[in-house]
Amino acid sequence: MSGLDVLFLAVGLLTAGSALLAVTAGRVLHAALWLVVALLGLAGCYLVLGAELVALVQLLVYVGAVVVLILVALMLTRAGGVPVVTSGGQRAGAAVVGAATTLLLGTALVGSVGRDRVELTGPDNARVAEGIFGVYVWPFELLSALLLLALVAGVAIARGGGKRS
Amino acid sequence: MPSELPLLVEVALKAAVVLAVFLTMPLALGQLEHKVMGHMQGRLGPMEAGPHGILQLVADGIKFVQKEDVTPAAADRPVFRLAPAVALIPYLVALAVIPFGAAWVAADVPGSLLLVLAVTSVGVIGTLMAGWGSGNKYSLLGGMRAGAQLVSYELPLVIAAASVAMAAGTLSLTGIVQEWSWWWLLWQAPAALVFLAASVAELQRTPFDAPIADSEVVFGPLTEYTGLRFAFFLLAEYAGMVVMALLFTVLFLGGWRGPWDEIAVVGVLWTLLKAAVVGVVFLWLRVAWPRVREDQLQRFAWLVLLPVALLQLAVTGVGVVVLQ
């Protein structure tokens, strides 16, 4: 095992462990904070694999914005300290869905890559930019249009649709 | 920088230097704030500790260490106790990739601008943890204000920085300084103003200090903190000012570029001088301006800063295409 392997194992275990704690935490706000650790760990995984840009965007978007929004929403609704109450059936169902997703993703990955070692060549920033703004420019722009649409629709719904008020 | 050292020794040395800078520069800025504010507002301030009162900061430090470390009974203990560290550490990481000179940078990574923006955006989680964990309604209110403010101002900040990155054609801070030329001062001036305003808001300093407004929410998220934990939050604020001043210098003022910058040390002095001027501007804003109201603050971010930043992005895009 090389140093990188050890590092990857460490951040991988950190990610998996904190993800598990995020799911099992007793309070909603603690779950959100464990989610921060899990997302940081995931950024660490990307970094170890050489995908610097993906790791940083993960940090900027998910930790810096998405989780902050979740935390503010929890504080605004005072739901942060409420204990999480889930029935045994719900827990079992969630566990089954989680395990099935893991299995599906795992087999898809192993099926597509195989068990051979793949050399670590994280794409550099210039190649990511070429991909997004060159080869995949139409899907990228369509996605951004979709997000914009969702945003405008969200504002429209939040304002009560105009007629009812 | 000595490059013939073994890697591990080099890394350890650089980390030690970054830590030393991280611990001294915020204190120097805090000292500057005491004195600049005192003279600008014509108030005497503490003058007994040392000549011209320069040892007051040391006395404050001793006071903080001696104070009792209180955790309120209603607090969410682990969250409350961890919050100062979460607020402080991102700025330490950011400082490691900011170049002081062409070769004076602890870790010269290709995406260093993005790294600084990404890690500094994590600091807000510390403020939110403090707001929640204190178990105090004023802390909670302040925390919510901080969260809303930081998310709103993050956007113009990132877009203003992206404009410079686009102009330079690189995300590396050293690369940006190398590409920089004096007429960028005019070309990127709107971005610079947006960045300055947004960074003051990110640091939650006057005029954008509604989250810790003492006449409304006591001291916001920091209300329940005492002793060293409170001092760590203060250190995070001043370290954040140092990081933002250095980042402004590197992005908009050409970093270490200046007369006689072939000599490495002179380049570093240029960086420090420019950053000190930006730091004084931060202090000046605090002295000169009253606090803006919460709704004015949001209005300013979305209706003024964001359109200006987007317009600047378009201007930069046209400029880059024309220059090519």
Automatic annotation (TrEMBL), chain A:
What is the annotated localization of this protein?
Answer: Cell membrane
Q: Which residues cross the membrane?
A: 6-24, 31-49, 55-80, 92-113, 133-158
Q: Which domain of life is it from?
A: Bacteria
Q: Which top class of enzyme applies to this chain?
A: translocase
Under the heading Pfam families, the entry gives: Oxidored_q3
Topological category with respect to the lipid bilayer: Multi-pass membrane protein
Alphabetized UniProt keyword annotations? Cell membrane, Membrane, NAD, Quinone, Transmembrane, Transmembrane helix
Annotated EC = 7.1.1.-
So what does this thing catalyse? Answer: a quinone + NADH + 5 H(+)(in) = a quinol + NAD(+) + 4 H(+)(out)
Q: What does this protein do?
A: NDH-1 shuttles electrons from NADH, via FMN and iron-sulfur (Fe-S) centers, to quinones in the respiratory chain. Couples the redox reaction to proton translocation (for every two electrons transferred, four hydrogen ions are translocated across the cytoplasmic membrane), and thus conserves the redox energy in a proton gradient.
User: Could you say which protein family the record assigns here?
Assistant: Belongs to the complex I subunit 6 family.
Q: What is this protein called?
A: NADH-quinone oxidoreductase subunit J
**Lineage, please?**
Bacteria, Bacillati, Actinomycetota, Actinomycetes, Micrococcales
